[in-house]
Amino acid sequence: MSYITEYKKKTKNSAKIFAKSLKLHVNGVSHNIRYYEPYPFVVKSSSGKNLIDVDGNKYTDYWMGHWSLILGHGPSKVKEALQKQIEKSWMYGTVNEQTIKLSELISKAVPVAEKIRYVTSGTEATMYAVRLARSVTGKKIIAKIDGGWHGYTSDLLKSVNWPFTESESSGIVNEEKIVSIPYNDLEKSIKILKKYSKNLAGVIIEPVLGGGGCIPATPEYLKGIQEFVHKNNSLFILDEIVTGFRFRYGCLYPTMKLNPDIVTLGKIVGGGMAIGVMCGKKEIMEQADTTGKRKSERSYVGGGTFSANPASMASGFATLSVLKNGKSIYSKINDLGEYARKELSRSFDDKVVVTGKGSLFMTHFVKNGMTEITNAADVAKCDGAALVKYHFKMIAQEGIFFLPGKLGAISNAHSKTDINQMIKASENFP
After folding, report:
1. Which of these CATH numbers, 3.40.640.10, 3.40.630.190, 3.40.190.10, 1.10.1040.10, describes 76-325?
2. pTM beyond 0.90
3. Which pLDDT value is given to residue 397?
């Protein structure tokens, strides 16, 4: 029996419901990557490490809400905080104290967060970070990484998927204002940046390339880019939407002794609720202050209707409070991640390279004797179809959920037993 046949047999209700979704929604989904063949199962509920679908199937989840649920699904402290807040209301549209409480936690944990502005998604946070960099420097060009994902903002939707030279979308304008550089290749990156130096507003980089392959940057690479950018009077922007509060209480950049001008956060800091955060040095962030400036002089950073809504603020505060007071969580999940990478590499012999850091990991089916993956171009040389097939086999036969083709995230709700089950299931993959 094929994986697809097995899957269809146990997800009949999902098939019926998703057929309705197809009639109402583009491709049946509201986020492109959530669709996979023959159809995604429909979730009924979640708890701890598990997703439960409408057919009653239970899956051990390694997608974890786009990697945002570091404590697992529905952790008690976060649920209690949300229930308490919702009793008061979940939308004010005005200043609220919950925002201040969350910002106090973030500002103490993230050194560069001298000023903070909330939005409702990581996409918005990076969009505003780019706008702010252009406003502060008076320059127009932004450099990003090949394979770097910073959301659907038109400003940064370039060189995300292979081939990097092909446009990511029709309808995009001013693509010439975005320049792409190769991850972990300092010499080539600097050569490109020098070419555009006179009009370079800033460089935006993920310290771990998330959607591009779960690849950590070398400290030398990040330091070299930062040095060039600052000497050029441009801004160094770190996208820590995935990495912020993922590996430690705070951001990843202080462990590399970096000095970013702007940092974007999201995912974990919202505790499973909609959030985006742009924070940075006071003198830079105050360019977004609308008081006492002509509109042509300021950088307009709006925020949006649902920015800093009390429900997201309460959820984020509860999540960061748990992480702050239970720092053993990080040693637990980081150790589990290291164990998963080691054992997956062993179980597949020389067929895969497993990338990642801490509690994040991704399995790449390599070709032609490849032994190392350092950037998104290397990922493009791997067998992506095999990865999707592997993940789908885990869904169909093993009750283990990875979004097919994407990286895995370990939460505090997972145990070593779960990791061992995942590894054992992987050994059965052809």
Report:
1. 3.40.640.10
2. yes
3. 96
